[in-house]
Amino acid sequence: MSDSQIIRFGIIGTGSIAGRFMAGLQHVPAAMATGTYNRTRSKAMAFNGSHGIPHAFDSLDELLASDIDAVYIATPHPSHAALSIAALQAGRAVLCEKPAATSVAELDAVLAVARATGVLYMEAMKPPFFPLYREIRQRIEAGAIGEVRFVRAGFANPNVPAGHAVLDPAQAGGGLLDIGIYAAFLACDWLGAAQDVQTLGRLGGLDGVEEGGVDTFASIQSRHEHGISQLYCGLDTSGSGEALIAGTGGHIVIFEKWWNPASATLVHTDGRREELAMAPLGSGLNYETAHFCELLRAGQSESPLHGFAQTRAALQLIENARRQLCR
Question: Cβ atoms within 10 A of the Cβ of 277, count?
């Protein structure tokens, strides 16, 4: 592909996150959505009408056989792995919403196909692509806070409407996979894969009872290759969304909501403070999408910023935590 070739996306799933993807796509040069697929055609048609997308396909096969370069998968969690494999096998690059899969076994199956086909695959884990996060990475890699030894992050939101999929075990609901995956990413990004995970929490669900429910609050303490993390997430409690990255020579606080990073403070051990601020454009999903398009044009099959190992490490941490709670 040439550096200016337009990337044509097919969108699988037309819910709220797909709408945010379209809002971000307006800020991505030489990229457009040309088709959608939803099991309920009327929903796809309504979505297309709102966003000016020309085609709503009756089947996944029709979408994958159409004139597209890549798919954006925005469906419920349990379908991510199977849809990713189908798209990769059809030769379509895949940008899949987080979590990439509901288990490490599922993810490994996806990654095996990605490696075998050589087709670009990336989890849509947005934080590492934001301008402020990239600035923070540059500062830390240049030694601004010394060696990173500790990460603390989390968020809890009790305003989940009754009947929401995140409360449904059949939809792989629960705070850990839905929002905890962000904190797991941050911990593994700076500390490496988790070697020991200890989790306390509680369960709930669509009927508010624990038996057979999803994780509604989880507190995780993990030992990693390079340090310790303390993470939490919840669906029945209110908690701020700040993050702390602590090193031997200082620390950085990323302010709420840290996974859409816009402002932070870098504190040196001698007391000096630096305020960092970079307001994002669009919905924020445009940054991961722009990076994905650059990789596709360059013929790359894996992101150097959020590759297979990073995706797997975060999901492994979450799987270990879920196993301890959702027995």
Answer: 12
Handedness of CA 317, 109, 305, 127 (dihedral sign): negative
Determine the Cα angle at 55 with ends 3 and 9, to 5°: 25
pTM, full prediction? 0.96
Q: Which distant-in-sequence residues (6+ apart) come within 8 Å of 317 by Cβ?
A: 184, 187, 188, 193, 194, 197, 220, 222
In terms of domains, do 255 and 173 share one?
Answer: yes
> Are 155 and 263 in the same domain?
yes
202 neighbors 158 (Cβ within 8 angstroms): no
Strand-pair partners of 273: 267
- Residue 250 structural domain: 128-283+314-325
- As separate numbers, helices (DSSP H) first and strands (DSSP E) second, the chain gives 10, 14
> Is there a contact between 155 and 257 (Cβ–Cβ < 8 Å)?
yes
Same domain assignment for residues 89 and 219: no
For the sheet containing 214-224, what is the strand order?
194-204, 214-224, 228-234, 148-156, 243-247, 250-254, 263-268, 273-277
Tokens of 64: 């994958």
List, for residues 207-235, the tens digit of each pLDDT value: 555 556 899 999 999 999 999 999 999 99
Containing 196, the helix (H) or strand (E) segment is: strand 194-204
